[in-house]
Amino acid sequence: MISPLETTRSFSSHAKQRANSSLTTIIILGIFAGLYSAMGCFAAQLAETMTDNHVIGSFIFPTSSILTTCCGGTLFTGNLLLTIGFFKHKITIKELFRYLSIAYLTNFFGSLIFVFIISLCSFKGVIIDFIIKVGNTKTSYTFVEALSRAILCGVLVNLGAWLSYAGESLVEKICGVFFPTMLFYLCGFEHCITNMYFIPLAMVYSKQITITMFLGNLIPVTLGNIIGGAFIIASGYCYSFLRDIRD
Question: Which of 45, 89, 122, 157 has the fewest CB atoms in 10 Å of its CB?
Answer without folding.
Answer: 122
